[in-house]
Design brief:
2 domains, four-stranded antiparallel beta sheet, elongated, 197 residues, 10 strands, alpha+beta
Length: 197
């Protein structure tokens, strides 16, 4: 009985060693690495090249989102804010911004609606869907009210009076030419000239 047990132990050790040598020696297992190796060498380069070349949104691509800001004010001038962050560099320079109040006509650079937000290249279009007790509302960025940065923008609303106030809507930002924008043509011509990088 002891001899049978020894033979089984010897056979198990021999089989384990053989399996270990075969598994370790095959090309398939030679390429298997940890998750860090797989992420850095296989997944990340493909994702960067496919979706965010150079960490920037490709020219002419649009990103969209929604916003909701509000509060309860003791009187007129109560302030509520929110921020829009695109997560990566969308614009080379500061975009032209447009805040379209609910029920207002949008400019030509903002051909969408609050249901289907759109923006021309180099523009941020903020479409208000609805509001309550709303006074002044707009974007806010490095250049003050009505501006944004290449990485995002702030939104604000001031209450018209005491009580609850809010503004709800959507936005679209479309990346402009890689050079950082377009040169405007002669006044009134509507022409824009893209500049190569």
């Amino acid at each position: 009985m002891k001899q049978d047990r020894r033979w089984k132990t010897v056979a198990l050790i021999a089989a384990s060693l053989t399996l270990g040598i075969v598994v370790a020696g095959t090309p398939a297992t030679a390429h298997i690495g940890g998750w860090v190796h797989n992420w850095n060498n296989h997944i990340k380069p493909q994702a960067d090249a496919r979706y965010l070349p150079g960490g920037k949104l490709p020219a002419g691509k649009t990103i969209r989102g929604s916003f909701n800001m509000g509060d309860v004010a003791a009187g007129a001038g109560g302030l509520a804010t929110t921020s829009l962050g695109w997560g990566w560099r969308v614009f080379h320079n500061q975009p032209e911004t447009h805040f379209i109040p609910a029920g207002s006509a949008a400019p030509a650079e903002c051909p969408g609606t609050h249901i289907d937000p759109k923006a021309a290249p180099g523009h941020l279009c903020v479409y208000e869907r609805t509001n309550l007790n709303a006074g002044l509302r707009n974007t806010n960025g490095p250049q003050g009210d009505g501006s944004a940065s290449p990485f995002g923008a702030g939104l604000f609303i001031r209450s018209a009076g005491a009580g609850s106030f809010y503004s709800i809507g959507t936005w679209a930002a479309t990346s402009g030419p890689k050079s950082g924008g377009a040169l405007r043509g002669p006044a009134g011509s509507g022409a824009e000239l893209g500049i190569a990088p």
